[in-house]
Design brief:
- This protein has 510 residues and is of the alpha/beta class.
- Helices cover 27% and strands 15% of the residues.
- The strands form five sheets. It has a six-stranded mixed beta sheet with strand order 11-10-12-15-16-17. A four-stranded parallel beta sheet has the order 2-1-4-7, sandwiched between helices. Strands 3-5-6 form a three-stranded mixed beta sheet.
- It is globular, with a radius of gyration of 22 Å.
- The structure holds calcium ion (4 copies).
- The site of one calcium ion has 9 residues, from loops.
């Protein structure tokens, strides 16, 4: 007999179930009518009971949020006004285990501001973080911990649902998935003081979606070497993965910033880091052309821009391009950074977009693609959004589209048709920067000596600096050990090799 649970996925695909809404809580700031209007609109849109709206009192300079100072909070104020009250409420209501998703609203500060740290020590020392990233670690001592070394995301790249992950890892510091409902604060939709961009964001997340949306990956062949590595390992990998899923895909390989596309369902680009000179004013209309174009409903977007979520206050002060403009342009879900994340800290487009294309909830796709916890990252949009007609998994046997079927691919998430594995441990070089074989890619923060304490990154960097060659240090297999190999290793900081077909244990090497 056919097991009855085979019918369940269909039922779950139809909007939000009662059990799903019981696992979502919403944070609003009582000091802002806009924040409250957003929280109430979302509760209504997803049938979330009033008791699950948490009302914090966070004083802000302008209740209508025209003053961007409300987007930052000091560490002591974050502890006093947000973290401690929330942990208390979660304990009192028994939410510690039952709650799965926390939704923050515009008006809850965006960023915990830490002391300034020189760029070279950023990944080791900074305590600046996205408020949302800290909230995902509630009850964990990792809240406020500096840098990224102690906080690789244990859910990153896992083929599990978040609930399965949490059931299997009850002690994991990652307890909650956090999403933010925000956009520019004006213009307001009447009669409630609900920003129009946020109203549309909510509407878009549940508007009917078609199977034929366009997945646009805007590659850029004009970047300097260190960034070109990310162009390959992140954006090229995203187009490989999406091609493997058989979706309608444009992988734009021109230097020109992609614009005037229609029906965009998923998008990844370099944003204002694109090398085109002069760059059109990033997102929105420029000289009669729309960048990147028109979005389909339920569109999910990401870009490789350091401070793209630094503000959602209009009018913004420009510098780098802003996620707020993508939301204003009709994107329903977007990832961003509230401060410099450094390249290793960005969400991986290939994981984000492939999970989402396969029908995962947007928030689950985001957390599965997020390399480090408690860092600068933020997800903007309705966390429960998912596609109505996902790509089918039958064609996903080669998830990175490199022609090597998953079961035998020694780097399952990175296109590596040649499968080069010079140390023979079963992981291809392109996803194996664990030079000393201790199970993860380490760094000694730029110090190459003494040898015994040298990190994997420094081992490769030293070979490059001395003009030498070691096949294991040549990660991309171009017969040279250089800056590119160092950049590849940096993108894998504190991560284990793979994922690949091999389940071999890491072995120590001299
Ligand atoms: Ca591969
Ligand atoms: Ca290897
Ligand atoms: Ca290592
Ligand atoms: Ca190389």
């Amino acid at each position: 007999m056919r097991p009855i649970f085979a019918l369940l996925p269909l039922a779950l695909a139809l909007g939000c179930t009662a059990s799903e809404s019981s696992r979502v809580c919403i944070l609003v700031n009582q000091a802002s009518p806009v924040s409250q209007a957003i929280g109430e609109a979302y509760a209504e849109a997803r049938g979330i009971p009033e008791e699950q709206i948490v009302r914090l009192e966070i004083p802000i300079p302008d209740p209508m949020l025209g003053d961007a100072r409300h987007e930052s909070i000091t560490r002591p104020d974050f502890e006093r006004l947000i973290r401690r009250p929330l942990e208390q409420i979660f304990e009192e209501r028994g939410w510690r285990d039952s709650m799965e998703i926390i939704v923050t609203t515009k008006g809850i500060p965006l960023r915990v501001e830490g002391p300034e740290v020189p760029v070279r020590y950023l990944l080791r020392e900074t305590t600046t973080a996205a408020v949302d990233a800290e909230l995902s670690l509630l009850f964990s001592p990792l809240v406020g911990s500096p840098g990224i070394a102690s906080s690789p995301n244990p859910f990153y790249g896992r083929d599990l649902s978040f609930q399965e992950f949490r059931d299997q890892h009850p002690q994991s510091p990652l307890r909650f998935m956090v999403a933010r409902l925000t956009g520019y604060q004006t213009p307001l939709a009447e009669p409630a003081p609900l920003p129009r961009d946020v109203a549309r964001l909510l509407e878009n997340a549940q508007a009917p979606s078609s199977a034929r949306g366009l997945w646009l990956i805007d590659l850029d062949p004009g970047l300097p070497d260190a960034l070109d590595v990310a162009n390959h390992l992140l954006l090229k990998a995203a187009s490989g993965t999406l091609a493997g899923l058989g979706v309608r895909l444009v992988a734009d390989e021109e230097v020109a910033f992609a614009g005037a596309y229609e029906g965009i369902q998923g998008y990844a680009s370099w944003g204002s880091n694109a090398s085109q000179e002069p760059l059109p004013g990033a997102y929105g209309e420029s000289e009669g052309r729309l960048y990147p174009g028109e979005f389909a409903s339920r569109a999910l977007v990401t870009d490789l821009v350091s401070t793209n979520a630094r503000t959602f206050t209009a009018p913004p002060r420009y510098g780098q391009s802003l996620v707020a403009d993508l939301v204003a342009g009709g994107a329903a879900g977007a990832t961003g950074h509230v401060a410099e994340p450094s390249l290793p800290g960005v969400v991986r487009p290939q994981l984000l977009l492939s999970r989402y294309a396969q029908g995962d909830r947007a928030i689950e796709a985001y957390y599965g693609a997020l390399p480090y916890l408690g860092w600068m990252n933020v997800y903007v949009g309705d966390p429960l959004m998912r596609l109505e007609e996902p790509a089918t998994a039958e064609i996903a046997m080669d998830i990175d589209g490199d022609g090597q079927l998953d079961w035998r691919d020694n780097c399952r998430r990175v296109p590596n048709p040649r499968q080069r594995d010079t140390d023979g441990d079963g992981y291809g070089n392109i996803c194996d920067s664990d030079i000393d074989g201790d199970g993860r890619t380490t760094t000694s923060w730029g110090e190459s000596f003494p040898r015994s304490r040298r990190g994997d990154v420094e081992a490769i960097a030293l070979t490059a600096k001395e003009g030498g060659y070691h096949p294991d240090h040549d990660l991309d297999g171009d017969n040279s050990v250089d800056e590119r190999d160092v950049s590849i290793a940096q993108l894998r900081l504190f991560m284990a090799p793979g994922p690949g077909a091999s389940k071999k244990k890491a072995r120590p090497r001299p």
